[in-house]
User: Fold this.
Amino acid sequence: MRIAIIGLGAIGSQALLHLSQQEGVQAVGYDLYSPGHGFGASGGENRLFPRVGTDYENYTELIDYALSVWERLEGDSGRTIVKRAGYLAVGDEAAASRSHIIRAAAAGGTPARILTRAQLQDEFGFQSYREGDIGAFDPTGGMIRTDAAIFEAARAAEAFGAQLHPWSRVTALETTPHEVRLHLGDQTHRFDLAVVTTGPWVHQLLPELRRLVHVHRPTSAWFLPKAARTMRGLPAISREGQQQYYAAPTFDGASLKVGYGGLRQQNLASAPEPAHTLIDPDELGEFPRILGEYLTAFNPTPSRIAHFFEGYTDSSRPIIQRTHDRVVVGVGFSGLGFKLSPVFGRLLAETATDRPGKLLGPLRESIPSFPL
Ligand SMILES: Cc1cc2nc3c(=O)[nH]c(=O)nc-3n(C[C@H](O)[C@H](O)[C@H](O)COP(=O)(O)OP(=O)(O)OC[C@H]3O[C@@H](n4cnc5c(N)ncnc54)[C@H](O)[C@@H]3O)c2cc1C
Assistant:
């Protein structure tokens, strides 16, 4: 069976890797740029992951599978993809009762532990805390290096026999009862099935998904510490409550990358263009407040700032399903997709080949079927 994977970002590169290892499958991947580029949903170098407590039922089992895939790629390439620097979640009282990590830490039985405001100040004094704040520290969480994760997944897939077409825009998708045709300008490539993982470019090939997936343009900003020692042992961070933000140290340990709720920024975009990754100074949004009130150990002027893009669904659940006998889509990862990208890639591969495995049973049930 010949299967095309259109879009080799976080999700598509993992679908390609899984499909390239399937008996009887010839997997062929296409991307607008070169795998590991920074223009779409996966740019900006790092992504955060906790290892306990998100809203997927068997999340720890799923993230452990994802980590095992990256560890294998690290072993093969000698390149660092995952850094287990820990994950610190903080919230005011109301937010803490909704936080999956804080609830999991409070329930016990996981490596995560609860921290009072005084303990937070004592152990993690690089940010400020408010009256009523509570935290949870998961020492087994951390950060994933996005460019290396995608690059190595595509490279490993190629070593398993997949074909790669970087710098190749699929301009249209045509289905017939017998095949699916990919048009690349005046060329036509024929397949038995296509997997569409075009991330925030979703509407270009699948305009009918416009009503289900909204493309936003969240901003990330990088800040240098006032004192270099602040960066020592810094974990990934998230804060919920009146002021929400998340942050992670860069892999070179030089600066802290900060972002806040993509959906709340309401920067709707049509489709990513490299020119749209640059920003105007008046688009600093909530960063001055976050730096001025919370991340006070950092220089408040960003050393770098850029827009990225992501497709969101109303429920924040991704769309992973067949839209046609010969087309499977994996889009709308809603600001949450990177940490489980090996899982979602495998789920897409299992959906494409109709070979469901046991590990993903509960996940399959928790992803809704969208009215397509
Ligand atoms: C700022 C920001 C912060 C985030 N933080 C986190 C986090 O901390 N933890 C977490 O788990 N998740 C996080 N996410 C979410 C996560 O990064 C995304 O869910 C994930 O990267 C989605 O990957 P994707 O493969 O869907 O999209 P992409 O990685 O953008 O891949 C889509 C690919 O399709 C290609 N393409 C598009 N159109 C075509 C075409 N016509 N022909 C050929 N190729 C095409 C593009 O070139 C691109 O490579 C964050 C997202 C953003 C934007």
